Amino acid sequence: MGTTADITAMRRAIALAARGLGATSPNPVVGCVVLDAAGQPAGEGFHRRAGGPHAEIHALREAGERARGGTAYVTLEPCNHTGRTGPCAQALLDAGVRRVVYAVGDPNPQATGGADTLRAEGVQVEQGLLADEAETGNTAWLTSVRLGRPYVLWKYAATLDGRVAAADATSRWITSAESRADVHRLRAEADAVVVGSGTARADDPQLGVRGIDGAVQPLRVVVDTG
């Protein structure tokens, strides 16, 4: 159980991670907050896009020398491998961070082990703070890595009598502006939007994200029995 300061910092890291939703695939969304040795905010960041700096790097760059002797709060275990970027566990060591608190262990066998690397160098490492909240924000990526399949959301709109459109095809929308905004937010967080071929022929849907600046457009997929 973390202190109030620990919980506040991790909750901020979780909020930061959410800013990357829809832009980091095939990587996870990750947030990081660094407090200095006196417990004051020194730096923060989130993973913005695959191939770019990880959350820890953004936070450490902002913190600078104030990271030395401080604590890093990360929503996912710091990575321990070199891919398109270097290992975050080593970056935390190089910055002189004294304590690392992370919410969720990394299930990716290629990247896990950061906690062990940090402990081996004398860093105090703690796992599990607000893990459920952090997992919720990373559900799609965790499902992919743990289960080897996509995370699927089913979007369905119907009238109170169970209909999806007017019989004469005059209806364009049967939902509110608020619910349509929610749909586009969900699309902006998705890698693909999937419809059946019947829907594609009948409605010619756009299947893209509208009304969200800077959104990465999802792949448009039409599924047919043939």
Could you outline the blueprint of secondary structure elements for this entry?
Blueprint: H1 4-18, E1 31-35, E2 41-46, H2 55-63, E3 71-76, H3 88-95, E4 99-104, H4 114-120, E5 124-127, H5 131-137, H6 139-147, H7 177-188, E6 192-196, H8 197-203, E7 219-223
Parallel strand pairs: 3-4, 4-5, 6-7
Antiparallel strand pairs: 1-2, 1-3
Helix pairs in contact: 3-4
Write structural notes for this entry.
The structure is a single chain. By secondary structure, the chain is an alpha/beta fold. 33% of the residues lie in helices and 16% in strands. A hairpin with a 5-residue loop joins strand 1 and strand 2 (41-46). 35% of the residues are buried.
Name the average pLDDT.
Answer: 94
Range of helix content: 25-40%
Compute the number of strand runs: 7
Radius of gyration: 21 Å
The side-by-side strand order for the widest beta sheet comes to 2-1-3-4-5
Explain briefly what this protein structure is.
The protein has 226 residues and is α/β, with parallel strands linked by helices. It contains eight helices and seven strands; from the N terminus they run H-E-E-H-E-H-E-H-E-H-H-H-E-H-E.
Defining traits:
226 residues; alpha/beta; 5-stranded mixed β-sheet; two-stranded parallel sheet; 8 helices; elongated
